Amino acid sequence: MNARTLQKPTLCTLFCGIALLFAACGGEQDNPAYPPAGEPVALSIGSARLTATADTRGSDSSAPGTRAGGTVINTDGAKLRLFRTAGAGGYDPMYDVACTYSTANGGKWTSEHPIYMDSRTAAVYACYDPHNVVSFGTNSTTTSSTISFGDYTDNDMWYFDNTHTAVNCTNAEPDFTLQCAYSRLAFHIARDAEYPTVCKVSNIRLQPTTGTFTNGAKVDLSTGKLTGGTALAAYNKDTKSLSMYTTGIPSATPDESVELMIPAQDLPTSAQLKITLNVNEVDHSATLTTAQLAKFEGSVRYTVYLSIKPKGLAVESVTLKAWTEATTTLGPSFD
């Protein structure tokens, strides 16, 4: 038997092998569930919504409430700003990539600069800034703009999600649930029927019993924490222009005119929140327990119920319009 007689079966075997190889590759590409191993796919947004506690306005924006489940972001033209880290696999990081929601495009999010994911994993962060109040440093996940204590205004609210830390081509359609960078603190101030005189409140002061607040800080999306800023020993809300001072708080009608926005942060270690009202030029204080309030959590609206009594200031309760709709109550405590 010579070499020529061996050539035909050898070539036949070679062609069959090539055919099988092409068939295998074609079968992998036709599988809609997963791309071929390592093949990049464009990141897409499954859904975007605010946390249940971020959506705190009722039908009347002057009367805050909470709608369960959070608000889906599906307004035409809404934008999410995406950030992809290098990850363990060594992607080139991408910063502040705009994705726009389009009703004309079937309710999908699209970007002029798609982010591609392969088999390597990386974190993907999202920022929702409906009022264009946030700016970021060059090639950074840290804001260059700062957030501070102040009167609550919806136009200063913005939101982020940093929980998707292991995204690759097999899960490149994350559902974002965005938490507000601020916490909200509202006051329900009642005058006890036995309080003997007119009740005029000229100032509300917040302070930790030890340590300081952080104010005027930037936010690092990678940690969800404040960075930089200044130490604030106490925050004072001047109320001389409000009716709680100009006419005083009547015994039958509690005052709910003050609501603050506070950069989300924990209270200092071992600290409690002390609240002081200046009533008729005299300071009256009460301290919340850590069971009532241990931190100012993003997307949570706290309401502190205070009663001005002949003996001083009492904390009646603190409510959290949060995921659990929990209410924590403390009996009267005085300065």
Automatic annotation (TrEMBL):
Keywords: Signal. Coiled coil: none annotated. Residues 1-23 form the signal peptide. Transmembrane segments: none annotated. Pfam families: Mfa_like_1 (PF13149). This is Fimbrillin family protein. It comes from Bacteroides faecalis.
